[in-house]
UniProtKB/TrEMBL annotation:
Pathway: Carbohydrate biosynthesis; gluconeogenesis; Carbohydrate degradation; glycolysis; D-glyceraldehyde 3-phosphate from glycerone phosphate: step 1/1. This is Triosephosphate isomerase. The lineage of its organism: Bacteria, Bacillati, Actinomycetota, Actinomycetes, Micrococcales. GO terms for molecular function: triose-phosphate isomerase activity. It comes from Leucobacter denitrificans. PROSITE patterns: TIM_1, TIM_2. Its EC number is 5.3.1.1. It is an enzyme of class 5 (isomerase).
Length: 257
């Protein structure tokens, strides 16, 4: 993981209106202020709901905060008659560096296929946004096929939709570990991350495989983050519940302590 910049990413899901988002980011920046110089090599990113992006963007740029910004979903289309959707060019205008695609809550709740997830990732790349592609197996998948089979297939199908040789991030998020308080072990996360890196190697070659950041997500806390970050193929974490508490998210970001 040495040559890859680790990233600690907070997925807020459908939490915080824009006023709460402003208060939260101000507190987070304050909490990271004294430690940030020790952490220049760790990227810290927040993924607020669409309605908060403009406020958070303004705060980050006005105060020159060293926080990255991302959105939680994007349309596969550039513009048009898609009521309720938000396009990649719109997110780009808001200086979103990243966008999550294929979160298991969207795969399960909105029947998103890996092909659609790949097309959304491609739409993001077209405008220079880095897609954060989520993959992961359910408890039933785990029992039937083992840990890596389903995430590997999901990633193969998503990557097949990417034409550009542009950056992407992969997040391995076992569905059974999300919001359950039962994280994977660091060894389980490492095994699947390693298998996913081999998929990237087969589809995109050595250079891309070595440069691509692969994150673990699922019940990450300040108590267990260090174990994941020690794994050679785990380059960061996607954090849900624990990203909504300033002190806890800040402690996670300081995992080296
Ligand atoms: C997530 O949904 O991306 C996630 C990792 O959630 P949690 O940390 O709450 O398990």
């Amino acid at each position: 993981a040495q040559q890859r910049t680790p990233i600690i990413a907070g997925n807020w899901k459908m939490n915080f209106d824009h006023l709460q988002a402003i208060a939260f980011v101000q507190k987070l920046a304050w909490s990271l202020k004294d430690v940030r110089h020790d952490y220049n090599d760790v990227e810290i990113a927040v993924f607020p709901p669409f309605t908060d992006l403009r406020s958070v963007q303004t705060l980050i740029s006005a105060d020159k905060l060293s926080l990255s910004l991302g959105a939680q979903d994007v349309s596969e289309f550039e513009s048009g008659a898609y009521t309720g959707d938000v396009s990649a060019p719109m997110l780009k205008k808001l200086e979103s560096a990243y966008v999550i695609v294929g979160h298991s809550e969207r795969r399960a709740g909105y029947s998103e296929s890996s092909e659609l997830v790949g097309r959304k990732a491609a739409a993001a790349q077209t405008v220079g946004i880095v897609p954060l592609i989520c993959v992961g197996e359910t408890a039933e998948d785990l029992e039937e096929h083992g840990a890596s089979a389903v995430p590997v297939q999901q990633l193969i199908k998503a990557l097949a939709q990417l034409s550009a040789d542009a950056e992407f991030i992969v997040a391995y998020e076992p569905v059974w570990a999300i919001g359950s308080g039962e994280p994977a072990t660091p060894e389980q996360a490492e095994n699947v991350a390693k298998a996913l890196r081999e998929v990237v190697r087969e589809q995109k070659g050595d250079d891309v495989a070595n440069a691509t950041r692969i994150l673990y997500g699922g019940s990450v806390t300040s108590q267990n983050i260090a174990g994941f970050m020690k794994q050679p193929n785990v380059d960061g974490a996607l954090v849900g519940g624990a990203s909504l508490k300033v002190d806890e998210f800040s402690r996670i970001a300081q995992y080296k302590k």
